[in-house]
Design goal:
Layout lengths: L2 E5 L2 E4 L4 E8 L8 E6 L6 E6 L6 E3 L7 E6 L4 E6 L8 E7 L9 E2 L3 E6 L1
Parallel strand pairs: 2-11
Antiparallel strand pairs: 1-3, 3-8, 4-5, 4-9, 5-6, 7-8, 9-10, 9-11
């Protein structure tokens, strides 16, 4: 069993930045891939970014490439998502995920954190 707790969401103006964090507990964090997914109102949950177990490989959705950076600190059991140059279309609930593949979600999800970007 894996427990994931996100934080760092909020309201920001277009062009601003936010940093999301996800603290994991329950299993060995450093042994599995992690990722961020998001769900906007009325839309399906979508892939944002994933990172390999050791942080050497990262993958991004085209819509966030060059603006978002995923990273992890295995010593702190924490996953991050640095979001820069935010746009109103980035508004969504952002979910931390564990156990997935390159652009595929695993079985464990956090509760989500709301990100709202105003124009």
């Amino acid at each position: 069993q894996v427990q994931l707790v996100e934080s760092g969401g909020g309201l920001v103006q277009a062009g601003g930045s936010l940093r999301l964090s996800c603290v994991a507990s329950g299993r060995t964090f450093s042994t599995y891939g992690m990722g961020w997914f998001r769900q906007a109102p009325g839309k399906e949950r979508e892939f944002v970014a994933t990172i390999s177990w050791n942080g050497n490989r990262t993958y991004y959705a085209d819509s966030v490439k060059g603006r978002f950076t995923i990273s992890r600190d295995n010593a702190k059991n924490t996953l991050y998502l640095q979001m820069n140059s935010l746009k109103p279309e980035d508004t969504a609930v952002y979910y931390c995920n564990a156990g997935g593949g390159v652009r595929v979600a695993g079985d464990w999800w956090g509760q989500g954190t709301q990100v709202t970007v105003s124009s």
